[in-house]
């Protein structure tokens, strides 16, 4: 029918999960996989209501667990863009190659792709900023009060510095002269971002000095990572990933399943590895020196992880 598909990218947090909540900068990279959305406005057969056909690949249980949040997020995007399905029906079909799994920003990819498709169906050409804002509204349906890092990566793609402020968040693209070769793998465990973020907050309030110490160490890692990105020094990025993972262990957001995958990636020759996102489940990533090593790491992880993917940050 000549309908065009509209995309939102998945992402991995390179450096700064959890710390980013406290308004320090983080680095995030969009993965190659994306969610795409096609919308069909109602026809003579049906005049109103919302139909969502969700054809996205996902780890077992993920879509059922998130079904209500997905509908709520979608409805918030529609509301933000002024599409009232009580007046004019809409069928939304979600697809693409992004596997919906904890930590990959599947919700943001979903909301951004819906925002793009709905705006196109309305005949509007929205700026990327407006798409990002619509995506953020949808993210609230999933997460309540997210930092905004996921929808920003889902909208703009590439590698970004992201920082929360008291007002609008700041973000900047980081251009890489050569691509970073990444393997990422799932523990198969769906983590609750709001619960883990609340736990970290409680620990921070109980032991502020301890938390400030970790935050200071994180900032050193972040600054060194910015330098390493400038020269595509992947060996340095790997060493910093290892350090950041150790910090996240101290923050108590890793878990035996993540540690096992991180250790296996290092054992198979990765330059470094860390958990990505909320932790206590979800994903980890590893960075590799070349395509051969990337394959070796993917093979090693494939033996112990339920799902493994390769991607590049470019
Ligand atoms: O699990 P993810 O990829 O949605 O990442 C959550 C990142 C946190 O820093 C833990 C929370 C946030 O809102 O930034």
TrEMBL record:
<comment type="similarity">
    <text>Belongs to the GHMP kinase family. Mevalonate kinase subfamily.</text>
</comment>
<dbReference type="Pfam" id="PF08544">
    <property type="entry name" value="GHMP_kinases_C"/>
</dbReference>
<keyword id="KW-0963">Cytoplasm</keyword>
<dbReference type="GO" id="GO:0005829">
    <property type="term" value="C:cytosol"/>
</dbReference>
<keyword id="KW-0418">Kinase</keyword>
<keyword id="KW-0547">Nucleotide-binding</keyword>
<dbReference type="InterPro" id="IPR006204">
    <property type="entry name" value="GHMP_kinase_N_dom"/>
</dbReference>
<dbReference type="InterPro" id="IPR014721">
    <property type="entry name" value="Ribsml_uS5_D2-typ_fold_subgr"/>
</dbReference>
<dbReference type="GO" id="GO:0004496">
    <property type="term" value="F:mevalonate kinase activity"/>
</dbReference>
<keyword id="KW-0808">Transferase</keyword>
<keyword id="KW-0444">Lipid biosynthesis</keyword>
<keyword id="KW-0443">Lipid metabolism</keyword>
<dbReference type="Pfam" id="PF00288">
    <property type="entry name" value="GHMP_kinases_N"/>
</dbReference>
<dbReference type="InterPro" id="IPR006205">
    <property type="entry name" value="Mev_gal_kin"/>
</dbReference>
<dbReference type="GO" id="GO:0016126">
    <property type="term" value="P:sterol biosynthetic process"/>
</dbReference>
<keyword id="KW-0752">Steroid biosynthesis</keyword>
<keyword id="KW-0067">ATP-binding</keyword>
<feature type="domain" description="GHMP kinase N-terminal">
    <location>
        <begin position="76"/>
        <end position="158"/>
    </location>
</feature>
<protein>
    <recommendedName>
        <fullName>Mevalonate kinase</fullName>
        <ecNumber>2.7.1.36</ecNumber>
    </recommendedName>
</protein>
<dbReference type="GO" id="GO:0005524">
    <property type="term" value="F:ATP binding"/>
</dbReference>
<dbReference type="InterPro" id="IPR020568">
    <property type="entry name" value="Ribosomal_Su5_D2-typ_SF"/>
</dbReference>
<comment type="pathway">
    <text>Isoprenoid biosynthesis; isopentenyl diphosphate biosynthesis via mevalonate pathway; isopentenyl diphosphate from (R)-mevalonate: step 1/3.</text>
</comment>
<feature type="domain" description="GHMP kinase C-terminal">
    <location>
        <begin position="226"/>
        <end position="303"/>
    </location>
</feature>
<keyword id="KW-1207">Sterol metabolism</keyword>
<dbReference type="InterPro" id="IPR013750">
    <property type="entry name" value="GHMP_kinase_C_dom"/>
</dbReference>
<keyword id="KW-0460">Magnesium</keyword>
<keyword id="KW-0756">Sterol biosynthesis</keyword>
<dbReference type="InterPro" id="IPR036554">
    <property type="entry name" value="GHMP_kinase_C_sf"/>
</dbReference>
<dbReference type="GO" id="GO:0019287">
    <property type="term" value="P:isopentenyl diphosphate biosynthetic process, mevalonate pathway"/>
</dbReference>
<keyword id="KW-0753">Steroid metabolism</keyword>
């Amino acid at each position: 029918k000549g309908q065009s598909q509209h995309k939102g990218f998945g992402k991995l947090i390179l450096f700064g999960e959890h710390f980013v909540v406290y308004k320090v900068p983080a680095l995030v990279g969009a993965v190659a996989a994306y969610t795409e959305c096609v919308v069909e406005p109602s026809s003579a057969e049906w005049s109103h209501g919302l139909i969502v056909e969700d054809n996205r690949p996902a780890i077992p249980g993920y879509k059922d667990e998130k079904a209500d949040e997905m509908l709520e997020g979608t409805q918030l995007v529609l509301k933000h863009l002024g599409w009232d399905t009580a007046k004019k029906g809409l069928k939304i079909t979600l697809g693409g190659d992004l596997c919906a799994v904890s930590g990959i920003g599947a919700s943001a990819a979903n909301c951004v792709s819906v925002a793009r498709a709905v705006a196109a169906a309305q005949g509007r050409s929205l700026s990327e900023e407006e798409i990002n804002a619509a995506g953020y509204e949808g993210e609230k349906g999933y997460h309540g009060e997210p930092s905004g890092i996921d929808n920003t990566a889902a909208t703009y793609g590439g590698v970004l510095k992201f920082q929360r402020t008291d007002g609008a968040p700041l973000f900047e693209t980081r251009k890489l002269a050569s691509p970073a070769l990444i393997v990422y793998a799932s523990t198969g465990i769906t983590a609750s971002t709001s619960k883990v973020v609340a736990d970290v907050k409680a620990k921070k309030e109980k032991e502020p000095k301890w938390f400030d110490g970790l935050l200071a160490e994180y900032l050193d890692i972040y600054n060194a990572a910015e330098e390493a990105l400038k020269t595509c020094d992947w060996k340095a990025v790997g060493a910093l990933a290892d350090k950041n993972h150790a910090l996240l262990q101290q923050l108590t957001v890793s878990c035996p399943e993540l540690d096992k995958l991180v250790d296996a990636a290092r054992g198979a020759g990765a330059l470094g590895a860390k958990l990505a996102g909320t932790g206590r489940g979800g994903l980890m990533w590893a960075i590799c020196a070349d395509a051969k090593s990337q394959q070796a790491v993917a093979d090693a992880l494939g033996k112990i992880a339920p799902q493994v993917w390769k991607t590049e940050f470019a």
